[in-house]
Write a structure and sequence with these properties.
homodimer, 581 residues, alpha/beta, Metallo-beta-lactamase, Chain A, Ubiquitin-like (UB roll), 3 domains, eight-stranded mixed β-sheet, six-stranded mixed β-sheet, 28 strands, nuclease (chains A, B), rRNA processing (chains A, B), metal-binding (chains A, B), Ribonuclease J (chains A, B), exonuclease (chains A, B)
Chain lengths: 581, 581
């Protein structure tokens, strides 16, 4: 998948302009070896997309990985379960990998670790207490026991030629870390996902004093979360939601259902607090919600008011006006509790007088699913509170205003926006330039673009494969874009399979043509109309002499294809099979 | 599709509450005949969805239709071209239809007219000059010559027992009308789509003096556009966009591309004006854009500054900084000019220094497609201006604040929100109640719910079929939800077809089993592994004696299904065929 056949060498920067560099840029080639004393940075995921974040750092023959997450498929990737980063750059290098640092416990940062460890189980997994607890729970499901290494903010650690320092950052999951990577080639500060809530629930703010100190020391390359770079101003404090929840709880007469993300400990905390204040019991619904909150509680990140949390099976022991269901499914996932409640396909029923709160974002692409659930709940008579009509969600990422603070505090020599689509990376790069970082020192790279840090300058040095690796059922990396294209054709157009068995000696049709079609018409008889023409076409091929089964198949394909185009105005997949018997 | 088997009769209203009534409500039955002197209102589309707007009015044995639009399919309806209202209520009644009134020329209000006229070509089509010009252009493509009847605001007309009066309303297409329908059973005011821009480009405001006069006269039932009922405040004037466009044009150095809707005459007008002011030529791109603007210009709705409009084939005669391309594709449609430009698959190329403006809304569900195009354009180095970072779009629908004015001016006896999903209808109904309409006089009906107006009261009287009618290739109404389910399975899981021919006398396998599979693995050899087991299963059935081909097929399905679940962890569609030869 890497570009090939072009001369190697760094890509020239145009002074004064920041320009995105795609992995498929025609001037990019497989990179030359790392220059002596250089540090190579290769984003294998998360640059040009929201998800599967993974960055490879290579220096003095050793490799350090920061994050290893999954990307969730779009509708154009039907049937796919997960999308992983392409690990092929690491093939043959597994023994050189000194560790994988996980900045926090979200799926788009840890979800691909089990697949990474399948290649090499000995890679140490480094992270904070909560992050390790989440990845260990996940690895247990994959029956993998990993080598882990617990770190805390303020702590330093060495992995081969990489000296690491961890810095507390605030995000929509507790215990998130930024990481400073010091090498003889220079220092890189990677924010991970972060925002700068100045009054977080747990008092654990993004450590700007550390950012300032590291800036003073010198940050040669700053990798910065771009997710909200397009959003002007400042992300509101998580704490603001508490008051809104309390008001909604105060007005609610019947049952309350709150939907949010299964790892959003502080959001759940605020629901617990609001419930406690209004004399309601809370039951957690959804396997991941129950598991994650169990971990968070055990590690002291979730403070459950005495007697507030009950098991969902006891929810009916209390009148509806004394209960809250805290559920997953805020993105309209069809199998999650909330969708099933909206479809009257769940033991929890919602009706007039009940209130459902979507304490969550609406992730782009999920609009139809989410509104389908909202409409379903409103059809049942429930009141629905969501981001669109009340402040029941704040983002976990720093907005443009916060990013400006960061750039001004750190004053990095080079900047490489990470975590986001092109539009986010471009917006983030523009913020860096506004604070005085020279445009030619802002690297807008996409996945697979190789960046070398040498003598205080980050330069694009080539590209390596960084395509999608699909997890599909039990297969990893076996499904290709060709199969997905087949699926899209099948899904939009259906198929017609035609089978015939012919006499091996003279090509006479022994049985068939038989037609099987799906996805086009309810009545199979529609397709009977074409059988005589297919038979004629077969006989014609035979009459020409020297016919082989391939020619017969092509003849069948032509006849059926033309008929479908003319008669049905469709282009189904056509699968002709002729066998000799 | 209609509910059945339950006792007929009106549904009781709960005083003080407005509750949505679904077509599938268990207490709803086929309606009794219209009570003497009553007016029956049946929404066949647009209530519970955004699109395929169509309302049937029935009185004194005659039927009047208001609007007849299409709905565009979602991803969960793969391959479908269009969705029509279900006309089956009108079957056998075509001679009673006195006319179809079109409130304006948008597809979701006129797109199904060709399919309606296929049933009965003599139905008069009534509308304003621009609306008729748009529908006539569409009918020409369908090779239909309709009976049309031109009306203007302020004008009255009679169609059978229906006395009509047309009222000017302002919308995102010129020449839109509301319609007052007077019958001996009472009067209905139907807003169509509207907003209340007080300074529209063409000076044609929503005629609130007429609304006031009709209110004084008495509006028994008010059908009100719900699209923006959830949006607080007031929709900004279209005119505001002109200044923003002019600023963007002033800053733009290279080529400018503006994307918008193909029928948004006033938006195109403002692009023409901004181009003229900044010395640029405009070329229209996209068949529908060229056609619609030709019509609008001819009818005096588009005022082209001398020498500003050029044919797209002359665009290269001018330097980029003197041109504007006005294109369709603002929703990320993959075949539209804009997507192709972003993919470098169009003769117009965009690069660093160029500006692309999305002067359009982002219709929910299109986010992924639109952001894909935006990212593509930014990857090419273009500056992208859109609703999210500049005020380059305003809605065509009245927001909550405007709706409150309407209710207070009209003071209707009964209200029936139209045009929207449940969440929009509920929000609109709540606004009516806030202005003093009693909750039990607000009818929140979905498609197919029958409402009778009698003695000044609107009551739900039953339900009629109102399901989706799919246009799919050349077929209309032949594809059912079963085929769509097949398509979804095929698209997500792929299929395995297995074929065998057996001896009719003893069941011995003559040829096969042969496997064809798509959408699961690149390498067909994967499936060879299962062939011996399928053969064993066939032989086992034969060995039991009295085997028929159905039993053999079931045996093959079981073996292959289990194998796919266990080995691939997938549930493909399995299509076994056994024929006797």
């Amino acid at each position: 998948m890497g570009p090939a056949g072009l001369s190697a060498g760094p890509l020239p920067h145009r002074p004064g302009r920041i320009e995105p560099v795609s992995h498929s840029h025609p001037e990019l080639n497989e990179p030359s070896p790392i220059p002596d004393g250089g540090l190579r940075i290769i984003p294998l995921g998360g640059l040009g997309e929201v998800g599967r974040n993974m960055t490879v750092f290579e220096h003095a023959g050793k490799i350090l990985i920061v994050d290893c997450g999954v990307l969730f498929p779009e509708d154009s990737q039907p049937g796919v379960d997960l999308i992983l980063p392409d690990f092929s750059y690491l093939e043959g290098r597994w023994d050189d990998v000194v560790g994988v640092v996980l900045t926090h416990g979200h799926e788009d940062h840890i979800g691909a670790v089990p697949y990474l460890l399948r290649h090499h189980r000995e890679i140490p997994v480094i992270g904070s207490e909560l992050t390790l607890a989440f990845i260990e729970a996940k690895l247990k499901e994959h029956r993998i026991k990993a080598v882990t290494r617990l770190v805390r903010e303020g702590q330093q650690d060495s992995l081969g030629p990489f000296d690491l320092e961890f810095v507390a950052v605030n995000h929509s999951i507790p215990d998130a870390l930024a990481v400073m990577i010091r090498t003889t080639a220079g220092s890189v500060l990677h924010t991970g996902d972060f925002k700068m809530d100045q009054l977080p629930l747990d008092g654990r703010i993004t450590d700007l004093r550390a950012f300032a100190r590291l800036g003073e020391e010198g940050v040669d390359l700053f990798l910065v979360d771009s997710t909200n770079a397009e959003v002007p101003g400042f992300t509101a404090p998580e704490r603001d939601i508490g008051k809104v929840l309390s008001n909604v709880f105060a007005e609610a007469g019947g049952q309350i259902v709150v939907a949010s993300f299964a790892s959003h400990v502080h959001r759940v905390q605020q629901v617990l607090d609001a419930a406690h204040a209004h004399g309601r019991k809370v039951a957690l619904v959804g396997r991941s919600m129950v598991r994650n909150m169990g971990i968070a509680k055990e590690l002291g990140h979730l403070d459950v008011p005495e007697g507030t949390l009950i098991d969902v099976k006891h929810i009916t022991d209390f009148p509806p006006e004394q209960t809250v269901l805290m559920a997953t499914g805020s993105q309209g996932e069809p199998m999650a509790a909330l969708s099933r409640i909206a479809n009257k396909d769940h033991r929890v029923s919602v009706g007039p007088g009940d209130t459902v709160i979507f304490a969550s974002s609406l992730i782009p692409g999920n609009e139809n699913s989410v509104f389908r659930v909202i409409n379903g709940l409103m059809r049942l008579g429930a009141k629905v509170v969501h981001q669109g009509n009340a402040k029941v969600h704040v983002s976990g990422h720093a907005s443009a205003g916060e990013l400006l603070y960061c750039y001004n505090i750190v004053r990095p020599k080079n900047v490489m926006p990470v975590h986001g689509e092109i539009r986010h990376l471009v917006a983030n790069g523009a913020l860096a330039v506004q604070t005085g970082v020279p445009a030619e020192r802002v690297v807008l790279a996409e996945d697979g673009v190789v960046v070398d840090l040498l003598e205080g300058k980050a330069r694009i040095a080539g590209a390596v494969p960084a395509g999608y690796v699909y997890v599909d059922g039990s297969s990893v990396g076996e499904i290709t874009d060709a199969e997905l294209k087949d699926r899209r054709i099948l899904g939009e157009e259906g198929f017609i399979a035609i089978f015939a068995a012919v006499d091996a000696t003279n090509g006479t049709v022994l049985t068939g043509p038989h037609i099987q079609a799906r996805g086009m018409a309810e009545d199979d008889a529609v397709f009977d109309a074409i059988l005589p023409d297919v038979t004629d076409a077969l006989n014609e091929v035979v009459a020409r002499g020297n016919a082989d089964t391939h020619q017969m198949q092509q003849a069948m394909r032509r006849v059926v294809g033309r008929w479908a185009a003319r008669k049905l105005r469709r282009s189904p997949m056509i699968i002709p099979t002729v066998v000799e018997a």
